[in-house]
Amino acid sequence: MRYAILGTTLALRDDGSPVAVGGARLRALLTALALRPGRAVPVHLLVAQVWDGDPPADAPAALQALVARLRRTLGHTAVRSAEGGYLLAAEREDVDLYRFERLARAGAAALAEGDAAKATVLYEDALALWRGPALAGLPDPAAAESARWDTVRTDARRGRIAAALALGEAEHVLPELTALCAGQPLDEPLQALRIRALRDTGRPAQALAAYDEVRRDLAARLGADPGPELRALHTALLSPPPPAPAAPPASGPAPAP
Q1: What are the angstrom distances between the C-alpha of 31 and each of 4, 126, 138, 194, 228?
Q2: What is the dihedral of CA 175, 177, 183, 184, to 10 degrees?
Q3: Using CB atoms within 10 A of its CB, is residue 241 exposed (0-12), middle (13-18) or buried (19+)?
Q4: What is the pTM of this model?
Q5: CB-CB contact of 5 with 96 (8 Å)
Q6: Which of 99, 101, 111, 242 could anchor a disulfide with 119, C-beta 3.0 to 4.6 Å?
Q7: Rounded to whole angstroms, how far apart are CA atoms 57 and 187?
Q8: Packing angle, helices 43-51 and 59-74, rounded to 10
Q9: What rounded mean pLDDT belongs to the chain?
């Protein structure tokens, strides 16, 4: 059995067919267990995450009944009783969130080694696992580290775009970069990628204007100047490229004797 929690919570059989996990509480319980595959999750933590701070009068009994329902759905061996709680009988690789993490790390390593083509494949495989907000099955996903996983996803998107720029695909990724930067105007590494893409597509004036826009945003919102990466990029934009070497003169016909 595999589990998907990057979006609506799903359970998938080995052949890829989905198992119907009906009811918000049941999906919340599966999400809370899948966050910690193979590890015992204490009853009090499961209650807090499934009922979001508003537990029923007899919370342990209500949780026990919910676990029984989940066992009937997934199979009785899928969820085991453990000391003080319950565990999902699964490996990290069985949960899409942790497959994403492994692939994203491998993509970052490939990019650091200069293999942009390999990094692109790894990043695209990782990002394809996302079907919606992380941990959407929980009543309050923001309280369950959803924001942290969204940050990891943004890092992976940055890495994939950096790999695309290294492969000379600036024109292809520029629309996505523009949309991302509009939503995260203070993300300096992301803004640096957009400025690089504008430069690489032959738009130096737009690249300088984008830098100035970022500089003003940082000053107005944070009272800060651009960091070293943006400043170095700005300096490079202001420096004219070296002139191309002159072509050697064409040789004429040899003089007649």
Answers
A1: 9, 19, 7, 36, 41
A2: -170
A3: exposed
A4: 0.85
A5: yes
A6: 111
A7: 45
A8: 80
A9: 90
Q: What is the pLDDT of residues 182-239, one digit of tens each?
A: 999 999 999 999 999 999 999 999 999 999 999 999 999 999 999 999 999 999 999 8
18 with 79: CB under 8 angstroms?
no
Q: Left (φ > 0), alpha (ψ -120 to 50) or beta: where does 223 sit?
A: left
Query: What are the φ/ψ torsions at residue 83 (nearest 5 degrees)?
Result: -60, 115
- pLDDT tops 70 at residue 143: no
Determine phi and psi for 18, rounding to 5 degrees: -80, 150
Give the amino acid at 16: G
Domains and CATH numbers, the chain: 2-94 (1.10.10.10), 169-238 (1.25.40.10)
18 touches 10 (CB < 8 A) = yes
70 burial via Cβ count (<10 Å: 0-12, 13-18, 19+): buried
User: If DSSP codes are grouped into helix, strand and coil, which group holds residue 253?
Assistant: coil
124 φ, ψ to 5°? -65, -40
Decide: helix, strand or coil at residue 73: helix
C-alpha to C-alpha distances, 171 to 95, 202, 216, nearest whole angstrom: 35, 10, 26
Token pair recorded at residue 236: 């490079």
Where is 198: in which H helix or E strand? helix 188-200
Q: What is the DSSP letter of 36?
A: S
What is the band of 92 on the pLDDT scale with cuts at 50, 70, 90? very high
| DSSP string across 125-173 | HHHTT--SSBTTTSSSGGGGTHHHHHHHHHHHHHHHHHHHHHTT-HHHH
